[in-house]
User: Fold Receptor L-domain domain-containing protein from Caenorhabditis remanei.
Amino acid sequence: MTSKEKRCIGGYASGIEDNCVVIEKTKLSFHGELEDCKCALLTNGYLDSIRQKLQNVRHIESGVEVVGTNLAVFDLLDHVEEIRNPDGYALEFRNNKNLNRIRMNELRILDGKQEDVLFENDHFIEEIHGNSESLSDFLHLESVARVSHKKEECSPEFVKIITSEASEYGWDLYALIVSCAVLAVIVTVQTFYLLKGKGKIRKNKMRSKGRKKHKKGRGNSERSEKDEE
Assistant:
């Protein structure tokens, strides 16, 4: 990040200046239709204008909140590389009725004050138990947060989940931790067998080369014996 990159104060996404690279001082907010407030509905045309407005943003220093939208896929920050918030959650998803995907493929740093991500009464949490793509998005956020904090193991500390029924909280959190741990085991096993397979291939190649050298040496020896005769 250079000093010449344009820095802008956060706020509602629709009001952000064009060509910003860094969003600072205030949360970047995406608000949609809520039952108890008269907010603008995020229509396709509105989304396109926001997407174009935010296309150069790479760093967000005061967090992001996505509240009460009708979005199924949140991909408006797919190009952002860093989201921090020293005063709270780096990412907040609250009361999004249809959310099932969170695409942040370029994200490399996710760093909040305590937990990095908040889900409050958000549909996305329901999706991750039966939707493999939703689970993959969630685990991507976890892995980015883990790397940001230089942790080697999956941890529930990166996320806080609040649901309308208190009894669901423990189950949701437990399921997420287990999912993360299972994925880590699968990746470890796959890596082990991959390396093991490569080792076998390398050994076979070395043995093959050894046999060829042995045959070549024996052939040369036989020729020299014939020459002497």
